[in-house]
Amino acid sequence: MKIYRRLLAYGKPYSAFIIPFFSFTLIATFFSVFELALLIPLLNFLFYPSPDAAHYVTAPHFSMSATYFKDLFYYQMYHFKSLKPIYALYFMSAIVFSAVVCSNLFSYLADLTMIKARTLLVKRIREAIFEKINYLQLGYFTNEHKGDLLSRMNSDVFEIEAVAANSVEILFKQPYLIVGYFVALFLISAKLTLFTLILIPISATGIALVTKKLKKEANAAQASVGRLLTIIDETLTGMRIIRSFNATKFVLNRFSNENDIYRRATLKGFAKRELAPAFSEISGVMIVAAILIYSGSLILSHDPAALNAGKFIAFIAIFSQVISPAKAMVAAMANVQRGQAAGERILQVIDTPILIQDKPNAIDLKSFNDKIEFTNISFGYTADRQILHNISFNIPKGKTVAMVGPSGVGKSTIADLVPRFYDVTAGSILIDGKDIRDIKMESLRSHMSFVTQDTFLFNDSIFNNIALGKPDATEEQVMQAAKIANAHDFIIHTENGYHTNIGDRGIRLSGGQRQRLSIARAVFKNPEILILDEATSALDTESERLVQGALSNLMKGRTTLVIAHRLSTIQQADEILVMQDGKIIERGSHQQLLGIENGNYQRLIKLQELV
């Protein structure tokens, strides 16, 4: 239950729900027991004479006791009976009806209170997961399936809401009903009630053994849901590739196999979970049969003090009501095992340590005045896989440094280190002499804009994509950024101009249009530091020329780190770094690097036929 205690902590403050919930539950329990207890006087009135009627000729004296209310009830009943017997029947029917109404009314209020608590609990759990995901280092997502994370945020949280939270509600509520019913049973016949209490633990032991095995199947089912979501996401994203390679049958088989794994795991869970209430039902019938035998022997003994027919029927009626909450509790315990598996998966995400975060004494970067220094930096995504090796270079303020080299040598990794998407494993990156690990990340990133080779746009309007994170942006500001990025002309020809929705990941736009929107987003931020990772890679020749001119104007007076494969785009850089195997092997301006005989840069230039 440790998992539930942690999850329930998200529902604080409890005082807003606990006091009204328990108050309403107690009142509802009282009326539920009371309406069944009324069977005794009703049956006695209908089928037996009332030898003690003389005792209720006068109204009882008021006192805060159960005896007073009992005497008052019988006084009113016999008063109406003395006028006309049918009046007494009307009176008792009205009392039963009122008890039923009150029982259901207060039960509804208790349920409504718990629903408010449940929805708040689930809301906060979902927000906690989403917040944690947004603060985790990027390296975390390279080791996790996106579908599994989606499953934890949706299926697992839904499991907590639909199963665990509901079960906790039952486990808090139903015991009150059971206690109330057993109090009434003891008052009717202590002997018979003790007899039933001996039988109940026998059935409870069997049920506990069944529910204990549910957690394993629940874990398997939830993990399978994550893999299913991953397959679905990959299929929707890569539909063109799948069809072009005639891989549709392969994908369908892959999905079908995983879906069958989920079905089998779910089937095992359902089989065991449904066994618990079935076992409970059989146990309940066995107990009732035993009660009938024992109570029948008491009645046949002709000892009215032990049990009479009216008490016997009331006892059976009340005990039958015990079975319903008992079954609900059994089912809840089975569901708790399912919920526990979902809770573990949720807490695994919440408990994941954030490896990259601000230091307690981190400072704000109020301005950028001098240079960015890379001092003997090394980095590896894992301890045994180093990507960068002892790299050092500077980017003076207002200058442009470009990095070239084959794929996989660490160019994009260096770009990711500047905003602290990852932290260096050795060495340091300094801005104006301050280690970026000593600067607040939000402050650090506020001075930067990024345009990456993997263009990402939101399923939103063009306006909101350009003005990302700036809800107070004006249309004039957004339009100016779009013009600089050579995007304005195609935007105004879309269906609703700047307020056109571009679909999932900008699917309604061409590759070049998406890239120009990404550039416009960077232009709009008006940063001091630009990081351009293949910023023109998706553009046709004409668009590339226009956008490159816009970027050249934007880069004037700004500090820019450029990663490029098209060497035509970086010939004007103040310094070009040629990388290979995670190291800088050549550096200098375009002309200086061309002068290196048989150099790597010279070879790249010749390959691209730029000389």
Task: For this entry, give a set of tags.
single chain; 611 residues; ABC transporter transmembrane region fold; six-stranded mixed beta sheet; four-stranded antiparallel beta sheet; 62% helix
Round the mean pLDDT to the nearest integer and report it: 79
Give the total of beta strands.
Answer: 10
Look at the helices and sheets and give the structural class: alpha/beta
Determine the strand fraction and express it as a percent band. 5-15%
Outline of the structure:
This protein has 611 residues and is α/β, with parallel strands linked by helices. Helix content is 62%, strand content 10%.
Description:
Helices cover 62% and strands 10% of the residues. Helix 7 (146-188) packs antiparallel against helix 9, helix 7 packs antiparallel against helix 12 (309-350) and helix 8 (190-211) packs antiparallel against helix 11. The strands form two sheets. It has a six-stranded mixed sheet, with helices on both faces. Strands 2-1-4-5 form a four-stranded antiparallel sheet, covered by helices on one side. The chain has a domain at 2-350: ABC transporter transmembrane region fold (Up-down Bundle), CATH 1.20.1560. It is an alpha/beta fold and 611 residues long. The relative contact order is 0.08. It has helices at residues 2-8, 15-37, 39-47, 66-83, 85-135, 138-143, 146-188, 190-211, 214-237, 239-244, 248-300, 309-350, 411-417, 441-445, 462-466, 475-484, 488-491, 511-525, 541-555, 590-594, 600-607; strands spanning 371-382, 385-396, 400-404, 426-431, 434-435, 448-451, 529-533, 559-563, 575-580, 583-588.
